[in-house]
Amino acid sequence: MITPAHLALILFVVANWGFSFVVIHVGLNGVPPLLLATLRFALAAFPLVLFVPRPRVPWVWLGAYGVATGVIQFGVAFTAMNIGISAGLASLVIQMQAFFTVLLSSALFSERLRSNQWLGLGIAACGVALIGTTNDSSATLPAVLLMLVAALGWGAANLVVKRVSRDDPNLNLFAFAVHGNAYAPVPLLLLSLAIEGAPRDWNAVTHLSLVSVLSAAYLAFIATVVCFGAWAWLIGRYSASTIAPFSLLVPVFGMISSAVLLREGFGTVQLLAALLVVAGLLVNVFGSRFNLKTRRIV
To answer: What pTM was estimated for this model as a whole?
Structure first.
């Protein structure tokens, strides 16, 4: 059973992950998205990578994790938020990673999807479709599509962790993440220079405001190092099946934070879409337990 202190730690983590979307929104006001992602992962990896022992994992898996989570997940997510999706809805849409994870697991590990996972995917997809078809500034279709790509990157990162954990069930996930993060800054910086341009990047770096610095520091140290470290410890202390469902609270905290701090409004369509996505996630996570209980009763 989860102790009250550990429950408080869980809520601290998911609340900060939800709030981090507000911080991203603020940070993007002064720094291009790919450059902000570069700063996040550079600060999260260095100098910590010099003090945390490297896990005995082939470098290719560390690199794959760094590219999946750094470039595809966060690099693309920051870009999506920069071109047109609100912080609250971004925190919601990226939770589609849960479905990309099971779909990729099915394709690569031949894991069979359960009926509740298909049902949950269908329900959540309807919610995302509603968000993508809204005709206001809270979410443009290109931004929603990019956020789905970011969710795919998150799912790919989850599969990398799953793959290396199979080889070493006692793998230190925090150490793996720290050393994997070190592979993200260089490709992110190269993409930033190619897409956002060296003049724009140089102007942002030479005119960094205190808000931009604090945003990057928060994303690196609190949202990445502290929160992921705590999450990895909690999974080791209990189990993934016990801790992972609490991630469903991330979009709740994300939408509340954006509504309170950024004054983001959510109309009827957005709220309905949010309910559909959360309902789909709930069916995906808890549906199999309900089916099992029903069979036992019958």
So the answer is: 0.90
Q: Phi and psi (nearest 5°) for 156?
A: -65, -40
- Asked if the model's pLDDT at residue 289 lies above 70, the reply is no
SS3 call for 139:
strand
* 278 within 8 A of 251, measured Cβ to Cβ: yes
∠ CA 225-228-234, nearest 5°, is 135
Distance CA 67, CA 237 (A): 28
CA distances from 229 to 10, 43, 138, 261 (A): 12, 15, 32, 27
- Domain span at residue 46 reads 4-297
- pLDDT of 94 reads 94
Q: Is the predicted pLDDT of residue 220 greater than 80, yes or no?
A: yes
Which is more confidently placed, 2 or 65?
Answer: 65
With beta carbons less than 8 A apart as the criterion, state whether 23 and 215 touch. Answer: yes
Q: Is the dihedral of CA 23, 28, 31, 36 positive or negative?
A: positive
- Biggest CA-to-CA distance, the chain: 68
Name the CA radius of gyration of the chain, rounded. Answer: 19
Q: How far apart are CA 116 and CA 120, in angstroms?
A: 6
Number of domains in the chain: 1
292, pLDDT greater than 50: no
Report how far residue 281's alpha carbon sits from residue 123's, in angstroms, rounded to the nearest whole number: 9
215 close to 19: Cβ distance less than 8 angstroms: no
**229/280 Cα distance (integer angstroms):** 28
Name the β-bridge partners of 139: 85
Strands (E), the chain: none
Q: What is the mean pLDDT of residues 236-250?
A: 85
Distance from C-alpha of 53 to C-alpha of 90, rounded to nearest angstrom: 34
For 74-123, the pLDDT digits (tens) are 999 999 999 999 999 999 999 999 889 889 988 888 878 888 888 988 99
Among 114, 57, 128, CA closest to 279? 128
